[in-house]
Amino acid sequence: MSSFQNTYRNKVVLVTGHTGFKGSWLSIWLNQLGARVVGLSIDVPSTPCNFAVAQLGEFVEDHRAEVCDLEVVRDIVLRANPDFVFHLAAQALVRPSYEDPIRTFEVNAIGSANVLQALRDLKKPVSTVMITSDKAYDNVEWPWGYRETDRLGGKDPYSASKGMAELAIRAFIESFFSGAETEKRIAVARAGNVIGGGDWATDRIVPDCIRAWALSQNADIRNPNATRPWQHVLEPLSGYLALGADLHRRADLHSQAYNFGPSALQNHAVKDLIDEMRRHWKNVRWNDVSQSGERLHEAGLLKLNCDKALFDLKWRPVLHFEETVRMTIEWYRTYYSESEASMFAYSQKQIQEYTLLAAHRGLAWAK
What we know:
Helix content: 40-55%
Distance between the termini: 11 Å
Number of helices: 12
Low-confidence stretches: none
CATH architecture of one domain: 3-Layer(aba) Sandwich
Oligomer: single chain
Order of helices and strands: EHEHEHEHHEHEHEEHEEHEHHH
Structural class: alpha/beta
């Protein structure tokens, strides 16, 4: 894999879900790479949110639209005339998927199909990365990582919706974008939950803690002994950007799926994460509420095997656990303690730090 540092310069890049956590960080990075970013999202995901505090409306072409409305999606796609598409628009939370499973299926599966249907009418080459989730795998909680050829499925509405999206993507590729001569190259990216500055979603460990601690309150922790593969938001985004760039250059990547996950060494208990956050945030307090409240089905062990991304894209994660936590908490600390700080500029600074670390650790895309 060669560097993607110049791939996106002066290119039009459509990012669906650009107001979301991952989408806003991706939009900042693409802006830094010299792209013209066009965004499509129905709304901001929370108040506050990264899109708002970074004032991203000043740097991207901001379209508020329903991804389930095919005609609106088609109109935005055709007017943008993109060179690249990153599809992240989704209903991304587990609890709302139980409260409204039909909406979750509609947004995540039909929304993905609508983006691909709109691309059929685009009269130019375009490279598209469809982002789904590690939850798309049929999780039997075995101790080794899932590979891209493993069975897809889902025992809960959110996971099932991601499996449905994958089926829709596969159907469009095989039916309408098949053959090496196709101008529409499409690949799938699968990643898990991420942490990083700018996330204020509900029912996520870091945002829940930050909201409480910013008010000098105790954070309620549902399962402090649960082990999770903690990954900074910039890790999968570097994979998405690398995949998009190589997809643009290499026809053999068309129709391929790739995992982007942390190393096995990034598995730590929730209480260990809190202890690490304590090093960078004062007055950390929390309550163990494991025995109280409702219990929704939540995947236990879910690991990804990322050998294919390493082999094909020369991609691997950059940050150690301590660096992941430090960068996350430093972002929030800057937001809450420095009222005049530009969070857009600070986010760019963290992207530069991440890129320098990647270059120092030998990753080709960062050179």
